[in-house]
Amino acid sequence: xxxxxxxxxxxxxxxxxxxxxxxxxxxxxxxxxxxxxxxxxxxxxxxxxxxxxxxxxxxxxxxxxxxxxxxxxxxxxxxxxxxxxxxxxxxxxxxxxxxxxxxxxxxxxxxxxxxxxxxxxx
Length: 122
Prior knowledge:
mainly alpha, 4 helices
């Protein structure tokens, strides 16, 4: 039985030839490895560790500042807000302070989540 290589011109009930494989690998085979293996060097590994450590540290410090700072007098009694009384009133409201503290908690959570889920690619 011959099949038409053009599947559009096949009528109903006529078999269609499967497309020709363009490569020698099957669909479920793993992709071929490149000629040069991309192993991480020790420098890249330590740079990655350092960047994760700095991310966790900055997230934790910024989060703690955002949790504590809105509830201190320095939050509203600063030089930047003295010339804007309406903004000072808004910033000193409990709603805005709660939003800032919530963002601080979220920031701390993201930093510690990153630290707990850190793994090295070997």
